[in-house]
């Protein structure tokens, strides 16, 4: 094996694409693919390799467009309801149905609604017709030899119907680009196997193959390769004999077991290694045996993004069509976002429409968080030399979902709770056109989002230290300029989540001071963090003496996962999260979790399906099954707060 000498560059995206495509052009790798003949019924989604011309006219005869009688138009002149024209069947008119050929010597059709039969063999016409009225003349739709569709055209379902109507049974199309996807990594195990510690289910290739298919290519997922340089080289070389594009997933960086760059260089030429994008920096663009070989990072978000940036335009170029651009919409950022100066960042965001304002909320940004791709409604591009985005800043969002879906999305923000996941699923099941989008920013930030008009409602369980009351003091202080409805969602158990069997024998908050106990916290501004600080102050415990107090997670499930993995011994959270991850639970108190809703939305038809769900026994039963929830007051109005109240 060659000595390692590769390093990551920082080439701007546009420059990397231009450099790669210029190199491919030079070796003839961007020539259009060979063609094949296929039946018209298989044409949707394919690209025409030759212009398609009509073999027959459509219709190929003069056809009746209505049920009625065929007439000579001049015989109907002067007809009216008060002075109908009488015509004899067989001599002056002939019965005809829609689609039937117009008999010779006739040039119009009278609709049956305008006809009365006055005696045997005689009808009365109540309304005159013009020549060729209610007739589809030959070639009205398509004329023989007419160009139906041009070359290099991406066929749609309606196009196949037009082609068939023109008498064409087979069409010539470009064959689909064949893409080999090679998953690499000694830690990978096939989907369906239970991974051991240190192993990862290989799921990227499934996602990447689906993307290739969506873009018009044919993807083949090759077998998982361990981190073996010679095997990687041999697999790449063999794949190039059959496939137009080879994609290697993982091993693209510059680590000790990252062999992709070295293998491409050994077999051919590396054009680019390292592009100034985030995520996806360590992408490798190369040419081997005159064909593109692309190494993409192993993290799922990075792999999907780099495949779209570099393989999607390549597939479309080989098919002879332009890469379609996603629709964009202007939105307002709900949070401040810091971004590294040297890289163009592709930020996944949730989108919602609140009144007439489109709002964008950033999702988790880690390259390994595949759920950010699932939850995202679109992408915001943060330029290379920007420090990030400001709260309230207008940005352009490339949409991943339709605007109609976004406009039918109820936007809830604030505190995280598992009930919201149940509610989102229940709502979608009962009202398929409606969805619920939640962002976990903490109770306090949720109320501020309502103040800024960035959500329809917020989940909150903020305990006021002075009064011991939940939510009301905060709502009165922060939302005094709005009419607000406070609706109970649930009462829930808060306590200390601990490992199965409670090996550290943790029984209360005072145990957090023990040196052998490690803690994991919720973020500042969350209701659980406020509750914890209130209770610690009540028993005279300095939070800074707690080992792990500064470590934070943004959801109860993430906190439970930290304990289940052994990286923390305990954390304050809800019983339902402990039950979900098979942890033990030390109950401490019962708290009230409310939905804070501006009256404007509470009284609107838009929120009606959500509010109705709260009163459904079937929904309440699903919530109770989670464990640790009391639904006895679910959906009840806790308070109505007007603008004048302080």
What percentage of amino acids are in beta strands?
Answer: 25-35%
Radius of gyration, whole Å? 34 Å
Q: Could you estimate the helical fraction of the residues in percent? A: 10-25%
Largest sheet: 8 strands, mixed
What layout of secondary structure does this protein have?
Blueprint: H1 13-26, E1 35-39, E2 52-53, E3 63-64, E4 68-71, E5 85-88, E6 93-96, E7 108-111, E8 115-119, E9 122-125, E10 135-136, E11 147-149, H2 157-165, E12 170-174, E13 178-183, E14 188-189, E15 200-201, H3 204-214, E16 218-221, H4 229-240, E17 245-249, H5 260-267, E18 269-273, E19 277-278, E20 284-288, E21 291-296, H6 300-319, E22 328-333, E23 337-338, E24 344-354, E25 357-362, H7 371-375, E26 378-382, E27 388-389, E28 394-399, H8 403-407, E29 409-414, H9 418-430, E30 435-440, H10 443-451, E31 457-460, H11 472-478, E32 484-498, E33 521-522, H12 527-538, E34 552-553, H13 556-564, E35 570-574, H14 575-580, E36 584-598, H15 599-602, H16 608-613, H17 617-626, E37 629-630, E38 637-641
Written overview of the protein:
- With 646 residues, the chain is an alpha+beta fold.
- Strands 29, 30, 31, 32, 35, 36, 37 and 38 form an eight-stranded mixed β-sheet that branches.
- Mean pLDDT is 93; it is low at 1-5.
Task: Offer a few descriptive terms.
single chain; 646 residues; alpha+beta; 8-stranded mixed sheet; 6-stranded mixed sheet; 38 strands; flat; disordered N terminus
